[in-house]
């Protein structure tokens, strides 16, 4: 493992802490009854927590030269990640249905919500697939795994912005988008400073894959063409 990322497990642990802080008031504090939550919420929370555990454990296994265990957990992710992606999509679907049926959200705002999966499900999936494609190129593999952690951590950031800082949902999403982009820009500059960028542009790819849809989030969801497209998706779902 690269010297600069030798303690990357700590970064993953901090990411997990951010998620826990973000979700404590809105989810964990409801233990043990969890009134208002359904099985999907618990399942989604479980598989996401499992992914954070995988991220933390894997570099530790590498540092301890437990390569066989590292490979076994890596193969386990082939099953875990598709389940994570499906659970994310189902949570979004439920949120959309509730926003329309129960919360009285206006139709335009509801349709704008359908853009949100492009800001996290899509980047997370792309980063994982790239990490697997480059699994034999450790430097690339590690950078794309770090990128998945940034996406997962963003869920905690959004909730911290809303619950702890008092932002509305839209403001929290914008703040989170800017923060994620800044983190990736910082990682690109880190590689540039250490003369790694010429041979490894994984963080540049991650910046584009995550940054573009999150920047478009500030404009596209309320455009006429997106509203028309989203309306077609809703009709197809029904």
Description:
The N and C termini lie far apart (49 Å). α6 packs parallel to α8 (202-216). With 238 residues, the chain is mainly α. It has nine helices and no strands. The longest helix is centred in the middle third of the chain and has 35 residues, at 67-101. It has one domain (3-237). The chain has helices at 8-23, 39-63, 67-101, 107-113, 117-133, 138-164, 169-193, 202-216, 224-237. Helices cover 76% and strands 0% of the residues. The chain crosses the membrane at residues 7-28, 40-61, 73-92, 112-132, 144-165, 171-190, 202-222. Keywords: Membrane, Transmembrane, Transmembrane helix.
Total discrete domains: 1
Please give the alpha-carbon distance between the first and last residues.
Answer: 49 Å
Helicity, in percent? over 70%
* Uncertain parts: none
Tell me the number of strands: 0
User: Which radius of gyration do the C-alpha atoms yield?
Assistant: 18 Å
Q: Helix and strand succession?
A: HHHHHHHHH
Characterize the overall form.
globular
Can you give the mean pLDDT? 93
Strand content: under 5%
Question: Number of DSSP helices?
Answer: 9
Can you summarize the main beta sheet? none
Derived structural class: mainly alpha
